[in-house]
């Protein structure tokens, strides 16, 4: 009698085969914190610096969550950083230039992100352009549009009451003064929880894993692969829209030249967190740990007065090491 293996549950994917990878990533995070605490105790382990790390993690973390969905499908999105900037610019256009109410401007900005992700998905599925090239082209297109729309000048949200509180305010701090955790961090964890539920408990999540594991088998089973891939890119684009609102709120402005380079930190966080670039494997929890590793590393290097050029070198080496580790893990399996 032929025996069939039981389907892998979402809990198993969350804590099972990748438990060692997440444990290693978490241990690396603790080790980084310990090293920088020993080297610069007077600067690193201060309340202001810890809040700064949390603030910087919000943007990288949200972008990394968006990238997680794409990378699990064995795709790549090089436009997430510039898409974040474009949605921030469009939020400025809606709220400042057009005078729309803030709630409506927020919804429209996220919608612009989802629409842009949809266009990337259609380019990949209908025009058969490889994800790397399609999103590279989208990155350049959005960067140009951001500069054209703003005429290379920032859009300031000074007259939009409460906009800066989206990221910089602290609901917890108002309730518990000893916990001045910024709202942006709460939004990051809310996005992470919702994304984990979507990834592990919905049809969108199941097809995200299925496409990364064996897209052709999914296609042969009668599933409309193109439709699900477009939906995944649209969902990721909407998450990038949230990142755009967070960074615009933190700066209280939409900076049209900002954004390029964030995609590297996001991809690094995803890979460090255990998501395979070959697709089919990944968790939101691992991605969040990877995002904190990137934020702590960048913050610690700045405190140590390491030149930005060397920071980029170290980031590149970390990405290479993470991919190499992923290859070793897959070959072992």
Helix content: over 70%
Radius of gyration: 20 Å
Beginning-to-end CA distance, first to last residue? 26 Å
Q: If strands are numbered along the chain, what order do they take across the biggest sheet?
A: 1-2
> From the coordinates shown, what is the CATH architecture?
Orthogonal Bundle
Main sheet properties: 2 strands, antiparallel
Structural class: mainly alpha
The 3D shape can be described as: globular
- Here the CATH topology equals ABC transporter involved in vitamin B12 uptake, BtuC
Mean pLDDT: 89
Percent range for β-strand residues: under 5%
**Unreliable stretches covering 5 or more consecutive residues:** 1-17
Q: Could you spell the SSE succession in H and E letters?
A: HHHHHHHEHHHHHEHHH
CATH class: Mainly Alpha
- Supply the number of helical segments: 15
Give the number of domains. Answer: 1
| Count of individual beta strands | 2
In brief:
The chain is mostly helical and 333 residues long.
What does this entry look like structurally?
With 333 residues, this protein is mainly α. The chain has one domain (14-327): ABC transporter involved in vitamin B12 uptake, BtuC (Orthogonal Bundle). The chain is built from 15 helices and 2 strands. The protein has helices spanning 10-15, 19-39, 41-44, 47-72, 80-97, 102-125, 131-150, 165-168, 171-175, 183-201, 203-220, 225-251, 262-272, 284-303, 308-332, and strands spanning 155-156, 253-254. It has a two-stranded antiparallel ribbon with strand order 1-2. Helix 4 packs across helix 13. The longest helix has 27 residues, at 225-251.
């Amino acid at each position: 009698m032929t025996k069939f293996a039981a389907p892998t549950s979402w809990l198993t994917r969350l804590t099972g085969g990748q438990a060692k990878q997440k444990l290693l990533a978490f241990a690396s995070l603790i080790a980084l914190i310990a090293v920088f605490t020993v080297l610069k105790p007077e600067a690193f382990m201060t309340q202001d610096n810890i809040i700064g790390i949390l603030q910087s993690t919000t943007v990288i973390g949200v972008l990394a969550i968006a990238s997680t969905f794409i990378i699990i499908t064995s795709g790549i999105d090089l436009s997430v950083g510039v898409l974040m900037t474009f949605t921030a610019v469009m939020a400025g256009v809606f709220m400042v230039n057009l005078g729309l109410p803030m709630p409506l401007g927020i919804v429209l900005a996220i919608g612009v992100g989802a629409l842009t992700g949809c266009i990337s998905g259609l380019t990949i599925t209908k025009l058969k352009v490889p994800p790397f090239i399609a999103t590279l082209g989208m990155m350049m297109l959005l960067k140009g549009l951001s500069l054209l729309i703003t005429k290379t000048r920032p859009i300031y949200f000074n007259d939009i009451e409460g906009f800066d509180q989206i990221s910089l305010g602290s609901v917890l701090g108002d309730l518990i003064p000893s916990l001045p955790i910024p709202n942006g961090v709460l939004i990051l964890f809310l996005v992470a929880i919702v994304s984990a539920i979507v990834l592990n408990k919905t049809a969108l999540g199941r097809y995200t894993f299925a496409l990364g594991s064996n897209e052709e088998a999914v296609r042969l089973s009668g599933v409309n692969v193109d439709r699900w891939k477009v939906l995944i890119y649209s969902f990721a684009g909407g998450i990038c829209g949230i990142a755009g609102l967070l960074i615009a709120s933190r700066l209280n402005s939409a900076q049209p030249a900002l954004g390029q380079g964030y995609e590297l930190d996001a991809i690094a966080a995803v890979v460090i967190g255990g998501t395979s670039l070959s697709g089919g494997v990944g968790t939101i929890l691992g991605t969040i740990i990877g995002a904190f590793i990137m934020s702590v590393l960048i913050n610690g290097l700045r405190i140590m007065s390491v030149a930005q050029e060397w920071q980029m070198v170290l980031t590149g080496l970390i990405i290479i090491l993470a991919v190499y580790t992923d290859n070793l893990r897959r070959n072992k399996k």
